[in-house]
Amino acid sequence: MILAAAGQAVMLADGFSRLSANAEPSALMAGCTDVPEAVALAETLRERALRIDRYMQEVERRKAEISFAEKQLTEKLIELRKLKQQVTLGNQGQSQVQSEDIARLIAVYDQMKPEQAAMVLSNLPPDFAAQILARVQPETGARIMTSVEPGHAAVLTSYMGALRAAGK
Fold first, then answer.
1. What pTM was estimated for this model as a whole?
2. How far is CA 48 from CA 6, 23, 42, in A?
3. pLDDT, tens digit (0-9, with 9 covering 90-100), for 19-61
4. CA-to-CA distance for 59 and 72, rounded, in angstroms?
């Protein structure tokens, strides 16, 4: 008599195999109902088969969840890479525009009379004025600095030194 649960390997369409445990039909137990050990064993095997089926269903459900989550993550990753590329291109364009603006501003200060440039720079924030002074032609910068009052010139000089130390 066969009292054990039968394990069957079933090949799915995607090529993965899945075990399906099935208890033997009750017809096979018809002649064994008077043997308590056989009945208990058959019941135990039937319960195991049911647990295995529930477990396999849970595994399949989790596999589907993981597959869905993986698909969503892949889509998000692609979207984030596209956004990063757009931001990078935008930053490069913005940086180039800023560099061109600064170059024009420096050219304007190079063309101004030193006294006028000194008056304008004295009204700007010291860190910004120091950046301008650090980028104008050295002779122009020296003439502008001589036109700035000594206390403000000292502040601008310290900012320019900090800029050079920072490598800007």
1. 0.42
2. 11, 9, 10
3. 555 545 566 666 677 788 888 888 899 999 999 999 999 999 9
4. 20
